[in-house]
User: Fold this.
Amino acid sequence: MNGIRAWYKKGLLEWLKTESPDIFCVQETKAHPDQLPEDLLNIEGYTSYFDHSKTKKGYSGVAVWTKIKPVKVEYGLGVEALDQEGRFLALHFSKKELGKDVVFMNTYFPNGGGGPVRLQYKLEYYDAYLKYANKLRKTGKEIIFCGDVNTAHTEIDLARPKENEDNTGFLPIERAWLDKVVKAGYVDIFRHFYPTKKEAYTYWDMYTHARDRNVGWRIDYFFLSPDLVKKTKKTGILDEVYGSDHCPIFLELELPL
Assistant:
């Protein structure tokens, strides 16, 4: 995205006040917390959490604002080599807050562009992430993970699949990881509700003005562990919301879970 400071200048706080989500997640913030204005850093009614790049400012980063207080927050996957770019927050909620023990993970997955080294980094991150999620599930936790996965899963998830077969974001090896996620039991909740819906995208290239023509990619997802699917009231893509090269997606759950 353009970075959270750019969206802030285009009316983020006004939009957030109108929508009033219980949990609001951003990926690719491109900012350390000390670079954010006070009214964005501490939005009224929310507690905020940030994971930012440890190597350079203005790069990567994720943030969560939540009205529901977590019992624990984890920053990073616990793998030092993968945790330097500020890509991961896990908020742990107990039965008292949500009705079940739930871990909500907000993640900005690496882009595989830039050569073999970055693609390898992305694949290593993918593997470590799934291992992390599966370990939590084995302890009885329900899982919600959301974020910019930086890969379109199937041909229906991008406007020009044939032209992108050899491009990162649609490589067979990247898509195979999403197959693993589904095989492990996580549900792509958008496709659960809309299995055949076409032209439903969350990202458009800015330089080619692709959004004007809806030449896009669906690379932002909510994945849920199976028991949460029946508690899902609705989900969708807010493609009328501007401010970035991505648009928001949403998930509405019935509480208590």
